[in-house]
Structures are given as C-alpha cells and as structure tokens.
Amino acid sequence: MTQQHTLQSFLSARYLREWAGDKVFGRGEDYYHENCVNLLNHTSQQAIAEVEGSQPYRVEWKLAGPTAMADCTCPAMPQYGFCKHAVALGLMLIDSSPPRENARKAHEPADHFSEKYPNIAGWVKDGWIEIGRDGNSTSLIRVLDEGGLPSVRKPIRAKNIPA
Question: Residue 159 above 50 pLDDT?
C-alpha cells in the first residue's frame, strides 16, 4: 500500500461511505451541499471545521499513522464511531484545493485567549475548550482531548467574572 502524505490524498468518497455507511454518508452529503461546513483550520495533515447541524459541532480530520482519523463533538461520534458532520467535512476536503500552509501561518491570528487565561488554556493539550450553553444548562465548559472525547463537562454558575 502506498503511503499517503496528506490528509486530502488519503480521503475519498468511497472511504467516507465505508466508514459512515450509506445512510450517514447521504446525510453528510446533504450537509456539505447545503454549505453547513465552516472550515476553521486546514493543513496538509489536519482540518478543523464547525458544521452546523441541530447546533454547531466542531469536527476534526487528521492523519494518524497509516490512516485518517475523524472526530466530532456531536453525540453520534462516541456512540456510533462516525457521524454525518465528519462526512460533510471530508467531502469538503476532497473538493477543496490543498492548503497553502505558509500563507495560512502568515495570516493566523495571535492566540490572545491563552495569553490572557493561561490556566484555562493549560487544561488542554492537543484538544479544545468549548465555553457556552446547551439545552440542559445555563452555561457549560467542555474540555475535549485530542480524540475529541469530553474530559470535563460541568455546568458552571455565572458570577462576576472579569472580562
């Protein structure tokens, strides 16, 4: 088997359909064609996007050794192992031009959050933090690890927190 050097060269509609199954693939295809994918970061090895479903979900594709790995913050990913949001991002990547990494880095904004809140940013290495609301609580903080699994999800009470 030929070694893949980029995420985009690894992905194909056939692989997405095999991983997701026909029903989930079709739903992801609909999300892609309805322009529900907002690409946030794209390198030759990784892509991160927000996909608008019943709510916005963070989706990530990355090369992991000899294969590619998808992750999503939706409930389907941990329950079923794949989701329509990952399909939608995968299809977008297949149809997109390769990233120009030097241009992306030149325009990448400074990470003011981690400078201002180093303790919060330090909770996560190779993951992300979601701060906001969901249908079950007034506010939440969800810390997701590299695999996208919640490592902390606790309702918080809003107090006078300095901005």
Answer: no
